Amino acid sequence: MNISHLRTLVEVVEHGSFSTAARGLGISQPAVTMQLQALEAELGVTLLDRKYRKIEVTEAGRALLPHARRILHDMEAARLEIEGLSGVVSGRLLVAASTTPGQYVLPRILGAFMADNPHVSVALSVGDTGDVVDALESGEAHLGMTGAVIHGRKVHFEQLGTDDLVMICAPGHPFATATGLKLAGVVEAPFIMRETGSGTRLVTESVLRTAGIDPGDLNVVTELGTGEAIVNAVEGGMGVSVVSAWVADKALRLETVSRVSVAEFPVSRPLFVVSPRTTLTHAAAAFLEYLRDRLDPSAREHVG
Q1: Most buried residue, 54, 110, 237, 277, by CB count within 10 Å?
Q2: How confident is the model at residue 100, as a pLDDT?
Q3: 123-135: b or e for each residue (b if 16 or more CB lie within 10 Å)?
Q4: Rounded to two decimals, what is the model's pTM?
């Protein structure tokens, strides 16, 4: 039996979805179907019953699964033992990240990691903090990075590095030259907010609550899904917003936006590496150590 076909069977059963299994394996959904059909043809049995939006494992499939899992476990153990002897890190590394670390922190670190470990192939997906945690829990990602913690989930958060959030406005906005501005004075101004689930939004709302302001009292004129979109909207005079200093850096240097001088900002938020509560793959473990070496180790804290 083909090892790849057994791995595909296990992935489909564990995720209950052909499409999710395909993403986790890094292949197309038709390829998943073809591999399972080939396995069934080789064994002369039906392993999975495909019903509308539901996959049921047949009696033959249930008989095969423990053997398939044991074979895959033994193969992985052998590979790790051999790699340990050779010192070579290989395999596929799936990383999920929220917008700011996914666009500004990880790409350069991943590039250096891949140069040092040419036998590792990497895929980086970017979403909001909730998407990252979902990917780790479902097995669609091996490691993640976020700007906020979601408690009560089956993952570990480890603080590594920081990100400064700044409040910005258009250069012609009254806030651009205001001094001694209080956060309460911002409430009635048109405000641009990140989407629900964003780490930037979670931290912004926390700062508001600490200042005694209900985030629901903000005059939110629009919600946008990326920091770049928010900077563009601020440049166009749509309103005031809070973004990562990394995102705003170019616009601030070009003076197409201005910092709002308010006591509560900038605020430094931690960045977190997110890992599953399972044994890491060899490539994921190697990259985690790589991150620890390159991000600020002085403020390391484990959550969850």
Answers
A1: 110
A2: 83
A3: ebbbbbbbbbbbb
A4: 0.59
